[in-house]
Specification:
With 308 residues, the chain is an alpha/beta fold. It is built from twelve helices and five strands. Helix 8 runs parallel beside helix 10 (247-270). The radius of gyration is 19 Å and the shape is globular. It is 40% helix and 7% strand.
Length: 308
Amino acid sequence: MSKLLCTVWLLLLLVNLGWPVRASPALSFRRRYGSIFSFGNSYTDTGNNPVVFADNGVFDPVTRLPYGSKFFGRPTGRCSNGRLIIDFIAQRLGLPLVPPSLAHNGSFRRGANFAVGAATALDAARFHDGSNPGNQFPLNTSLGVQLEWFRVAQAFAMPHCPRWLFILGEFGVNDYNFSFGKSMDEIKSLVPDVISAISMAIERLITHGAKSFLVPGTVPSGCIPQILHYFAKDDPAEYNSTTCCLDVYNRLGMQHNLLLQEALEKLRDRYPGVTIVYGDLFGPMMERVESPAKFGKRLTTECFRMFR
């Protein structure tokens, strides 16, 4: 995500959470939130990935350059050459970068990150049906597993604090991506279960005292280069003529985001004392693809020839 889009997204987020946006807001934000606790996949993971992959004997490319080269000067376990959105949020709030729970030996009083790259919302066992023997993914790092890590950490290492911000996600993209190759009807049938898993996680965290949530939607998978490469289509009509994205996968993301927003609205009604903000990842990413010239980029329209 470009710095411009990230800045716009963050400003909208801060306003939606009821934070006044001023020239120097860090001090006032720090009074409101003392720490961040996050769950998710590689969009949020700040360093758990190498620990989990090593434990499972899986090679992890994020442990090598160019990962981390643009900001940290070294690999940090982030699936990025710089910072993630969660890093920008923490800095905007005047908080330390959120430490990865599995790779951090200190206190979690200032927050903890339980996200792991390639994590799913649904239990990993659901994807190991014998149809792809030898494939270890997804690993056992689902949302339910991450919630259990949080429960243990809270019980033994963290006092209750009412000034916690919980970032729950992104979740869903890996549930769907690991299912690509099946029929679209089979993949779509996962959406309600994914949304239910996210909703139940929010309610579970509320029972632990959570009062503020940021819940990002999913991304336009049909525009992701790996998806365009590995799931290329023979029919040029399946590609959007303007963006070169695969429409069928983007429609899946839109369905997920619509149902997620409906579920969050129900939770707001059920828990009026809890702040739950939806974070739009889909829109800013599509803006970059649809209007590349705004960001100094050029996108070829020869989609079919480009991805086959």
